[in-house]
Amino acid sequence: MFIQTEQTPNVDSLKFKPGVTVLPSGTHEFLSARESLASPLAAALFRIDGVQSVFFGPDFITVSKDPDGTWQLMKPDIYAAIMDHFASGQPIMKEDGGQSALRDDTEILPDDSDTVVMIKELLDSRIRPTIQEDGGDIEYRGFDNGIVKLKLKGSCRTCDSSVVTLKNGIENMLMHYIPEVEGVEQVYDEVEQIAVDEFKKLENSLEQHQIGGS
């Protein structure tokens, strides 16, 4: 098996392409060793020192590392884990191990409004392919009072340019094609929201310290 490696906009994320189908449909992200138990491959990758998260796309695997990790040391183990998995013939996900989470978030539902249908179709046809090229994905979380709620996944989740991607890329395109869209908002999981809140507290504390010292 020849595994291609591609850079992503996030220096702490690499995209690995094994040349075979990874997930037949949808995407899946693992943010902890506990979550990875639903997948033999994800569990193997999390046993590698420095791995922070794993993301499965249709034909690629994005591995994100700790900022202190070194790709030069980690890549041989990642290659080995991927090759061993596909050689073993094991399924990518355990039976019902998170398969319910693979339901397409942009599936058109009977009670979707015309606006929501257009949003989902645009996300699928124009936006998602571009995001996946960079080793990430987006997850539709709702449309409320003109605001489209999205969750960034994979390499995009921790990328420094994620806000730029969200605002300049996704928001501009949605607002251009769909007049009802007034903006885009990034949605965080509970653990991620705590980290964001703590970072904001630290920023405010540093600002106050600078003001007090000037």
Whole-number mean pLDDT: 82
Strand order in space, largest sheet: 1-2-5-4-3
Distance between the termini: 60 Å
Count of distinct strands = 8
Q: What fraction strand?
A: 15-25%
Helix content: 25-40%
The profile of the biggest β sheet is: 5 strands, antiparallel
Structural class: alpha+beta
Tally of helical runs: 5
How would the global form be characterised? Answer: globular
Radius of gyration: 19 Å
Topology:
Layout (H helix, E strand, L loop, with lengths): L3 E4 L5 E5 L10 E3 L9 H7 L4 E6 L4 E5 L5 H18 L25 H20 L2 E9 L2 E8 L7 H16 L5 E4 L3 H24 L1
Helix pairs in contact: 1-2
What features would you describe in this structure?
The protein has 214 residues and is α+β, with helices and mostly antiparallel strands. 40% of the residues lie in helices and 21% in strands. The chain is built from five helices and eight strands, in the order βββαββααββαβα. A five-stranded antiparallel β-sheet has the order 1-2-5-4-3, with helices on one face. It is globular and about 50 Å long. The model is unreliable at 99-103 (pLDDT under 50).
